[in-house]
Amino acid sequence: MDLTTWPGYVPGFSQDHNLRELGGLPTMDGRHVRRGLLFRGSALTELDDVERVRLDELGLRFVLDLRAKGEAAGNPERVPEGAEYLRLGGMRYEDGSEVDFSPEGIERFQREAGLDGPFKPADDFFSRLYISMLFDNPATHALWERFEQHVAPLFFHCTAGKDRTGMSAVVLELALGVTREAMLEDFMITNQYREFVIERAVASLSDGSPAAEEHVRKAYGVQIENVQSALAAVDERFPSPEAYVQAEYGVSPDELAALRDFYLE
Q1: What is the arrangement of strands in the sheet containing 20-21, beginning at the earlier edge strand?
Q2: Which of 161, 188, 230, 251 would be a feasible disulfide site paired with 41, CB 3.0-4.6 Å?
Q3: Residue 185 and residue 93: Cα distance in Å, rounded?
Q4: Hey, which bits of the chain come out as E strands?
Q5: pLDDT in tens, 25-73
Q6: Which pTM was predicted?
Q7: Where are the domains positioned within the chain?
């Protein structure tokens, strides 16, 4: 796909930043997400001068940094003037601590994943992490608070803008009634935005085995089975996306309808 044809395409940024918006995504009631309100991407740490100007033009009022404390330390980002900034890790272990993808945090992540070797993670580890991001997640609740208060335009991101960012987008898309097809496509298009990053990582492998390449592609990209597992958990527990967001975020049907009227057109 030519990324410039994607409904959420935002011009002026390098493809590697994985920066796009939810605007333009279709909903089940025949509407579309309004443009210019809900942005997602990678950390705002490597923008050039032109991209910094473009970022300011977005008029952001809130930036949610989903990176763990260890990832953000030493890698400050360029927050637009006037925007509220909040860092709150978007993925957590069962003990409530943040999943940290800093060099120091990777060792624990590999241990928690049950790695028997470099390319054999426990089968259900990533599915469990993805499911956990949709329930009782402090980061998505912080995002929801601003979303509900119409603090927009807003921008949410992690390091690469793929897993934690992708699931935060899913929360908003469920709330807005985005079609399941568009939701999955928005999640998976990360692999096209990050194509150069992924292929560069594959090319740098000293071990060129198929297992090594698969591991790198999973680490640098996204897999549809993970988000499908999370959505299946919602479907199993609730009769509808509306029931999920009403229970998880404490909104009434009328309040949810009003949110949709604000964010959809």
Answers
A1: 20-21, 38-41, 154-157, 62-65, 84-87
A2: 161
A3: 27
A4: 20-21, 38-41, 62-65, 84-87, 154-157
A5: 999 999 999 999 999 999 999 999 999 999 999 999 999 999 999 999 9
A6: 0.93
A7: 3-263
